[in-house]
Records
---
Amino acid sequence: MTGNDLLLGIDIGTSSSKGVLVDSAGTILARASRPHETSTPHPGWVEHDPESVWWADFLEITRELAGAAGGRQIAGLGVSGIGPVLLPADGAGKPLRPAILYGVDTRATEEIAELTEELGAEAILEHGGTPLSSQAVGPKVRWLARHEPEIYQRTELMLMASSYLVHRLTGEYVLDHHSASQCDPMYDLRERAWAPDWAARVAPGLELPRLAWPSEVVGTVTAAAAAETGLPQGLPVTAGTVDAWAESASVGVAEPGERMVMYGTTMFLINVLTDPRPHPGLWTTCGALPDTYSLAAGMATSGAVTDWLRRLLSGDFAELVAEAGEVPAGSKGLLLLPYFAGERTPLFDPDARGIIAGLTLEHGRGELYRAALEGIAYGVRHNLEAMSSAGGAARRLVAVGGGTQGGLWTQIVSDVVGAPQDVPGETVGACFGDAILAAMAIGMDVDVRRWNPVSTTVRPDPGRVEAYDEYYRRYRELYPATAGIAHFLAGQQHAADTAR
């Protein structure tokens, strides 16, 4: 690679796809994005069409960014996407149905219970590092075989968003170790390999992809893909990975004890480890880089709740943030449980529900909006404490994502968790991490902290830390005290959905 060569990173997200063109010094030369929709054909089902969403977005973004290269050579391509997902495809890589998305798709509830009983909860946790939940791919494979047997019988490839792009570009059937480690219970976390016995029980007759690390080149762009995309034939392509792990690479969260909090539609957290530390309330996975592991946590909603409030209160974000900023810590006696779509870690309760406690006629928009930010921050603290209880060290916390803009949300989180957060200068996200992983894959010596230095550090206010400690204790009491009522109400909602 010469100093004039460029890198391309493209990420397929839940609601949009993004890409960047980066030079060899880490400077972003061009950006592109495309919004898209998810499909919810039945209650609990969440899907993407890979052709009209993943591939169409990839083509448009690639052509736009390649056009900005100005004739300079693109030397490497990295991709990432939502995950873990299940896309069954035929031997040529043609999708056989829409992709079944990650933990937000809850169709495989019976298969989760069945496999947990069949294999044993303790054995699954020890073997794969994670309890089976809606996040796991294995139960969704069994659901496919049971409910759409004609599709399963035709399935020859098991793809995710990133591996679908890799296959389409290079013809290679490959999956990165991190994504594979979320295919519970088919992957052996300690061996860093497929578990043949369990894989055969979950996915009989299905050939699993070869494994590689996200920072490895796994193939090059074929002549056919070059003609379709405008990319140069022979361009090296990385294995790809799940978007959150690409995002962690973009901000240099790579050393043991480093943690990332990703502020977005959902909240996602990663804690880097040197060895697996299974915990019943978290996901333990392989990391983005070789010889690393991760503790991971994900809240089912975060920015989705603030956006719901924005629409409900007929305001815009700037107004609501300004009003919330005038409200003292504790929102004048309000507590919000942000479980508006159930909760993932550390509760693993799809029937948890949102609660606003303490409402009076004196509360207004500012109090409600601040209570939402605080409730999400309490959820972050709950997950960080679970990581610590699992043995994950906490020596640095990095904040990323669109929710870091404006400063109020990150300040509330630092005050609630009692720890500073580094905010990098570039929070464009996973696509920048894809470019960084591509640079590593083709042999560049990448200093991520030089490419993406910290722009500010949010430090906790000691007075608010003390106030929030009491509110956090009450937050932790509110869920178990109301879970039975929430489950009853969730059952009524499920019955209403079924009757439609």
---
Amino acid sequence: MNNPIGHELSQNIAALNQVQMTAIELGLKFGPKLLVACLILLAGYFVGRWVGRFMESMLLKLELDVTIRILLVRLVRILVLGMFGVLALQNLGIELLPLIAGLGVAGAGLALAMQGVLSNLAAGLTIVFTRPFKVGEYISIVGEEGQVEVISLFNTVLSHPDLSRVIIPNRKIAGEILHNYGQVRQVNLSVSVAYDADLSTALTCINALLAANPKVLREPVPLVQVATLADSSVNIGIRPWVSITAFPTAAGDINKAILESFRANDIAIPFPQQEIRLLGQG
């Protein structure tokens, strides 16, 4: 009488033996190729790093912008690794033409699903290579302004004067009107003096305090001139240049110094006033 348990056990053992034989056969057939493919990819990783370091040293001599340098080094590393990846696939006997066709179809679908990301990427490449602004410069665009901290392929990060950070997608920057202040900004101030005040003394005081202020740059030369002749005062325009970091506090320091200097030299700052005459009826 046949034992059903023993028969089932023998079938399981036979199946395990078949799986083991198949695994050994596949290992003997594809194992060496897989090992060689892994070694090729490993070699590509180290060769890519070496080529990237060599490329970076060459670009440092050209004094390229840091963003462009990092992008080119990464592209070279990816290109080298991709070439070794192709060699690894060929070693495994994989047909590349059907794979490339499949990747093309998948890439088209992915591009449709990631239009926003790809538009940011395209705009980022445009910014990197056209260089409308650089890291460290102060810019104003799309209603935002700040000092450029990071320029990546997808967004640009600005540090705002209120110590916050503004992250702008690159597609919002490309094609927009950009105001690039560079590394310096001009402070726009105005002070009024009375018509009977000594104008030459007032201008001398302003020029002296600007020259003594460490935040005011010597070049470009500060612009101090009579701006307008108002109804009850002479308005003096004061436009010194300061660094980006000094801009938030420079106006307050200069206004304080002007007030103290005018008080010390008896220069009157007029206040708004109106004279009203009541005419009686004859």
